[in-house]
Amino acid sequence: MSARPGGRSRSRARLRLSVATLVGALALGAAGQSARAAGTPPPPSPSPSSAEALRKQLDDLVRTPGGPPGAIALMQVGDRTTVHRAGVADTRTGRPPRADEYMRLASVSKAYSGAVALRLVDRHRLGLDDTIGRRLPALPKAWHKVTLRQLLSHTSGLPDFSTAPSFLEILIADPRHRFDSRRLLDFVADRKLLFPPGSRYAYSNSDNIAVALMAEAVTGRPYERLLEQLVYRPLDLRQTVLPQGYRMPRPYLHGYDVTPPAPPEDISEALSASGVWASGGIVATPKDLNAFVRAWAGGRDYLSEEVRNQQRRFIPGAASEPAGPGANAGGLAIFRYTTRCGTVYGHTGNFPGYTQLAVATADGKRSLTFSINTQTSKTLKPELLTKVRAVQEDFVCALLRR
């Protein structure tokens, strides 16, 4: 925070803007904006042909006005891992980003709640056609016909709690407010479905809260414990956590509000993770995120062939938030990104201070995590998002050509 007179009030105003733009981006998804338009790929650019060219792409990105102070991309082909980075992880110290630094995964967290649910489907504890009425009968009766499949594919019609005025009022008044994560759906419990379940696609944070609650209901175990048992331990993820508060584990990639001409403002610990929980609260390192997405996309026999086939029934044009590289299509807690060089599978996310992409090939043998330490979405700095998507596509091309 600035020590200059009036600096604290200006800083708080900028934080409120960051919060407002975050929920604004989510509101567009909940309002059912055209998924096909959101997933339209930007114009192609010449593919970089060397590590030097890839680094130049990142250097150009961090020099963009309003762009991130830092960027890090981890690429793995087989057992060989390379790390490309530019800029800084911390503007105060000037240190560069590293693959062992924690960062907020934002909506990539939805892939983790999807992993918990589909692993339970594989174990016959849950069914994709299980309904809210069967597993969570205390939720509004108007929602009872919604299925787990529809929640995972964002075709449920559940109203998005993160756009509810009562939720926003609390969040803007106290960004570090500690919510009861298991009661987040209460903010929209008086609302009907936005559309008949399964009739169309609309990205909603409420979906994955309900997914986690379903998993808890059938196992009798907290969602955090299920993450440990079904995701962290099987994949040897030792630097992945789901916090409730606002503090970040150390060391971490600092996240910034970048609003020129003001200098970047560190907002890494401005918001409590409790307000996003299973939809956006996970914190992990690029190294751990890479290990997860390799399994999630198709490696290590993480899911049975039967469940994997269900997961990969894609809705053309259904984009993640923000849209990933190339043409987007949505499956069950996973997205397909069809680039000019080939196809990868994974998830994106954005949160004040962070924008994420994690993808891998269908066999899990080639993977990419691409992280920048500022937020961008289709409503917040859309020009920057267009540039980020173009650079991401170049990295995917480099990944697939190795």
Note down, in words, how this protein is organized.
The chain is of the alpha+beta class and 402 residues long. The protein has twelve helices and 13 strands. The strands form three sheets. It has an eight-stranded antiparallel β-sheet, sandwiched between helices. Helix 3 packs antiparallel against helix 12, helix 4 packs parallel to helix 8 and helix 4 packs across helix 9. It is globular. The N terminus is likely disordered.
* Discrete helix count: 12
Output the helix-strand order: HHHEEEHHHHHHEEEEHHEEEEEEH
Low-confidence runs (pLDDT<50, min 5 residues)? 1-10, 21-37
Q: Helical amount among residues, as a percent range? A: 25-40%
The main sheet comes to: 8 strands, antiparallel
What's the N-to-C terminus distance?
Answer: 44 Å
Summarize the structure.
The chain is an alpha+beta fold. Helices cover 34% and strands 15% of the residues. It starts with 6 loop residues before the first helix and ends with a helix.
For this entry, give a set of tags.
402 residues; alpha+beta; eight-stranded antiparallel beta sheet; three-stranded antiparallel beta sheet; 13 strands; 34% helix; disordered N terminus
